[in-house]
Specification:
Layout: E1 5-10, H1 15-20, E2 25-32, E3 39-52, E4 55-67, H2 75-87, E5 94-103, H3 107-113, E6 122-135, E7 172-176, E8 179-184, E9 191-197, H4 199-208, E10 219-227, H5 232-249, E11 254-260, H6 266-273, E12 276-286
Parallel strand pairs: 4-5, 10-11
Antiparallel strand pairs: 1-9, 2-3, 3-4, 5-12, 6-11, 6-12, 7-8, 8-10
Length: about 300
């Protein structure tokens, strides 16, 4: 992923072991160069059970779309064949559309996919999503004794479009009365690795305590975020609790939280925690003949599943 911080998204020690955690049904397509056998492009589709218009549905998440730089001149052909293959994996008990995200600053991908070129599916924008890396080091608060919030956290919030139906058993639940969130450290099977910095960030890396090039980013994901009545004090207390626990229990330096731009708590998180931020656009991906039956409720997709 290009940008001021260049990131590679990796699946060590096993791509397929990581895939099993990314959905009960998981499909991957690879394109290989005939002469060398090298993989030059890939994409995946993972099916999750989430809420759609308040009802549990199976929805495909499209992700990991990559084309090697030397083969991007064949990009349109590779994308068309990839989408055709992944479309054939759709089962009758799944929604008539998939979802995906594209980083807002990725003008090349957006210009290509938003045009609905012949042979391509339609990408319909649903929501602008803010992915925020909250710094753990700023919160050295004492962690209170934990209550069992296993019945509260886990996403189960039909008010939110694409919220997971089931809790993730690997996540560590944090809570305060009226709010809960789960921390999921995925580094044992999925890593975001720094591959380079812009000249300015390279000189400022020590000041910002950014990882060295080639090192995985020491972060965990915050999932199943829920604050009753969108109460700002509850939100602050909850995130302080999660950050303090991460400081005490792990070597994580960031917790990643993704919220819609229009979420009532997004401005608070940006102001209070001053996170590193990147903006993405959430799309419904569907055929030209498909009507996407969404009722307008706020979409809160779990960034840890993408």
């Amino acid at each position: 992923m290009p940008g001021p911080i260049q990131i590679s998204l990796e699946r060590e020690p096993s791509y397929f072991a990581a895939g099993r955690r990314e959905g009960g049904r998981h499909y991957t397509i690879c394109a290989r160069e005939v002469s060398s056998g090298s993989v030059v492009a890939m994409g995946s589709r993972a099916v999750h059970e989430v809420f759609v218009n308040g009802e549990p549905r199976r929805v495909g998440f499209l992700g990991q779309l990559r084309i090697a730089p030397a083969h991007r001149r064949f990009g349109r052909f590779l994308l068309q064949k990839g989408f055709e293959f992944l479309q054939r994996t759709c089962a009758s008990d799944e929604s008539p559309f998939d979802i995906t995200t594209i980083v807002a600053s990725n003008a090349v991908a957006r210009n290509t996919l938003e045009k609905a070129l012949p042979g391509f599916p339609v990408f319909t924008a649903i929501e602008r999503v803010m992915t925020m890396l909250l710094p753990v080091r700023r919160h050295l608060l004492r962690v209170r004794a934990q209550t069992d919030f296993s019945g509260v956290a886990g996403g189960n919030d039909p008010r939110l479009q694409f919220a997971p139906v089931h809790a993730n058993p690997e996540a560590r639940v944090h809570g305060v009365p009226g709010a809960s969130v789960a921390r999921w450290d995925q580094r044992t099977f999925k890593q975001a690795v720094v591959r380079g910095y812009s000249p300015l960030l390279r000189h400022m890396r020590w000041v910002s305590r950014l990882p060295r090039s080639g090192a995985p980013v020491p972060m965990a994901y915050l999932t199943s975020f829920r604050v009753d009545d969108d109460d700002a004090r509850l939100c602050s207390a909850l995130l302080d609790e999660a950050l303090a626990a991460a400081k005490q229990e792990t070597d994580c330096r960031w917790l990643t939280l993704a919220l819609p731009l229009r979420h009532p708590m997004t401005s608070l998180v940006l102001r209070r925690y001053r996170p590193h931020v990147y903006e993405s656009i959430l799309y419904a991906v569907h055929s030209r003949s498909t009507v996407v039956p969404l009722d307008g409720r706020m979409a809160q997709v779990e960034v840890s599943l993408l």
